[in-house]
Amino acid sequence: MLNKLIQVVLGTVGLQSALLGPPSLSNELQLGWVESQVESLLGASNDECSRCKNLLVLGNKLAKLNPALIPPILIRLCEKYNWKDDCEVYRDDTLARGAVGRHIANVLSLIDPRGVDGTNICWHFGNDACEFEMPQFEPHLSSWWGPRPEEPKSAGVKSEGTTFNVLHLSDIHIDLRYMEGAEADCNRYMCCVPESVNQNSPDKVVEPAQKLGTYHCDTPQILLEKSLAHVSSIASRVPFDFGVFTGDMISHDTDRFLSLSLTLQSEHECYYQMKKHLGDLPIYPTFGNHDSYPYAQMAQNSSGFAREFEWNTDLSSRMWRDYKWINEEQEEQARHTYGSFAVTTKSGLRVISLDSNFWYEENYYNYWNISNPDPSGIFRWLTNELLQAEETGTKVWLVAHVPTGGDADAVPWGTEVLRQIIVRFSPHVIAANLFGHTHADQFGVYYDSSNVSSPTEADAVSVAWIGQSITPIDKYNPAWRYYSVDSKTFEIMDSHNYYSPLNETYNVAEPKLEWKYLYSARKAYDPDREWPDDAPLNATFWHRAVKTFVDDKKQRQVFFDNFSRLSPYTRVCNTDECIKQMRCQMVGGTVDEIKLCLRRP
């Protein structure tokens, strides 16, 4: 019911009488008063949506009057309603320390509790207490651009049959607290760290963390270094023009042990190791949802709280410039666009790195001003870049962390805005979209159609390439890839994927991480060579691949083998339910489209 709302967003929100009594009351008395108000509101006889919004009204007033009370109220409510374990597991003791609680208070002070903000907060955090409401962005959104040109300037560019190579790394999640021999089969919090415990065997380790890395744990430093050493060895034979890193450097550790200091240290170590092993190769990074402190939080300039996160953009952009990945002008741009920037490579391709935290569902700042398609200004900045590229005939790659569809944990309103942008500028401007976040080897197809249950090949306009993770935390093998790219059209001709079977290093006296070539996308997903050799792996190719995966059991298993990189935990997907979910995630360009697809027969 409403417990998740109270646990996560603050179940201390409520009625118009909720001015917390006289301002002269002590904090302890105010806490008691709010607690009684919450109890009264939860027991009210009105419908669940109204109760939830009444709670938000109280929270809005409280956050404006005394925001410092938000964290202790959260803790008290968790204890009162026996949610203490859930609250701690969610982000451990962050609320007690105020790292996230302060930002919840910030957002509560901004929201319209009875409008679309309140509706969708209660939908998401209140377990469907209210029905989801998609904001109506038209005609505002389409005013950002005119109609797609009938003869775009890029249309005259033809392939000459030459290619170059681009590296794609994603989701490192380095764990600087990883400890060999620690419990890898833990029941709570992060595994493979000193505090890890299996509650069924508290005095004896059930599954010891391995030297080079362990399934269900994040990346030890040695795994990162050996992964990048392998990338470097391949680069000596297959030169890369540049690389992209689609985010997430910080571990999944609980906030009891995460800190600003550890966040900074982890970011520095990841960037340093990339530079150390890859030398002068330009790397174009983007922020992941873990690449902030507190976890996932990033405020828009319009919120009035953006300065609390400037340390991250300032530090990262300066490091990118120091490593000569971007220049001084791009550093300045990144500092003023939340770490986003645009750079033209030596081949003439425009790479736009975009901060996806503005459509990530656990960034609380995405739950105010929802009716505005662009509270951060990042989408308008992107469309201006794309309009300029359209005018000059320049091709663009978009690089971000959180995909708009799949199982990406994104908010429907933000992903719908980005979907419309991608569809408007594809394929004549946007040649590729690169993401990470899911840790799996995946892809998604964007369609210029609202018919998500049965989109047609003619409607397929663009592709989301979702890169594999280095971290084995989801029981996937560590992996990375590079793309073979047409030198003129900048379309992706193939992807080449490498992995390391981590289980082969288990319980070995002197383990060695062996890297193997896993697959070529062109060969794996077109085994009968029906697709022309000189044609790119575009949206049409992947639309056909989706149909093959649905109809052909053998090819579907090839996809899932690659999905988890031949992990011992690779799943088999043969039930109607599994196949439908797989298909919807591949063809649903946004969170909302996927849900519509899953609901239809």
TrEMBL record:
<dbReference type="InterPro" id="IPR029052">
    <property type="entry name" value="Metallo-depent_PP-like"/>
</dbReference>
<dbReference type="InterPro" id="IPR004843">
    <property type="entry name" value="Calcineurin-like_PHP"/>
</dbReference>
<feature type="binding site">
    <location>
        <position position="248"/>
    </location>
    <ligand>
        <name>Zn(2+) 2</name>
    </ligand>
</feature>
<comment type="similarity">
    <text>Belongs to the acid sphingomyelinase family.</text>
</comment>
<dbReference type="GO" id="GO:0046872">
    <property type="term" value="F:metal ion binding"/>
</dbReference>
<protein>
    <recommendedName>
        <fullName>Sphingomyelin phosphodiesterase</fullName>
    </recommendedName>
</protein>
<feature type="binding site">
    <location>
        <position position="437"/>
    </location>
    <ligand>
        <name>Zn(2+) 2</name>
    </ligand>
</feature>
<dbReference type="GO" id="GO:0008081">
    <property type="term" value="F:phosphoric diester hydrolase activity"/>
</dbReference>
<keyword id="KW-1015">Disulfide bond</keyword>
<feature type="disulfide bond">
    <location>
        <begin position="52"/>
        <end position="122"/>
    </location>
</feature>
<feature type="binding site">
    <location>
        <position position="401"/>
    </location>
    <ligand>
        <name>Zn(2+) 2</name>
    </ligand>
</feature>
<feature type="binding site">
    <location>
        <position position="171"/>
    </location>
    <ligand>
        <name>Zn(2+) 1</name>
    </ligand>
</feature>
<dbReference type="InterPro" id="IPR041805">
    <property type="entry name" value="ASMase/PPN1_MPP"/>
</dbReference>
<feature type="binding site">
    <location>
        <position position="248"/>
    </location>
    <ligand>
        <name>Zn(2+) 1</name>
    </ligand>
</feature>
<feature type="disulfide bond">
    <location>
        <begin position="584"/>
        <end position="597"/>
    </location>
</feature>
<dbReference type="InterPro" id="IPR011160">
    <property type="entry name" value="Sphingomy_PDE"/>
</dbReference>
<keyword id="KW-0325">Glycoprotein</keyword>
<dbReference type="GO" id="GO:0004767">
    <property type="term" value="F:sphingomyelin phosphodiesterase activity"/>
</dbReference>
<keyword id="KW-0326">Glycosidase</keyword>
<comment type="function">
    <text>Converts sphingomyelin to ceramide.</text>
</comment>
<feature type="disulfide bond">
    <location>
        <begin position="573"/>
        <end position="578"/>
    </location>
</feature>
<dbReference type="Pfam" id="PF00149">
    <property type="entry name" value="Metallophos"/>
</dbReference>
<keyword id="KW-0862">Zinc</keyword>
<keyword id="KW-0479">Metal-binding</keyword>
<dbReference type="GO" id="GO:0016020">
    <property type="term" value="C:membrane"/>
</dbReference>
<dbReference type="GO" id="GO:0005615">
    <property type="term" value="C:extracellular space"/>
</dbReference>
<feature type="disulfide bond">
    <location>
        <begin position="192"/>
        <end position="217"/>
    </location>
</feature>
<feature type="binding site">
    <location>
        <position position="289"/>
    </location>
    <ligand>
        <name>Zn(2+) 2</name>
    </ligand>
</feature>
<feature type="disulfide bond">
    <location>
        <begin position="49"/>
        <end position="130"/>
    </location>
</feature>
<keyword id="KW-0378">Hydrolase</keyword>
<feature type="domain" description="Calcineurin-like phosphoesterase">
    <location>
        <begin position="165"/>
        <end position="440"/>
    </location>
</feature>
<dbReference type="GO" id="GO:0006685">
    <property type="term" value="P:sphingomyelin catabolic process"/>
</dbReference>
<feature type="binding site">
    <location>
        <position position="439"/>
    </location>
    <ligand>
        <name>Zn(2+) 1</name>
    </ligand>
</feature>
<feature type="binding site">
    <location>
        <position position="173"/>
    </location>
    <ligand>
        <name>Zn(2+) 1</name>
    </ligand>
</feature>
<dbReference type="GO" id="GO:0016798">
    <property type="term" value="F:hydrolase activity, acting on glycosyl bonds"/>
</dbReference>
<feature type="disulfide bond">
    <location>
        <begin position="186"/>
        <end position="191"/>
    </location>
</feature>
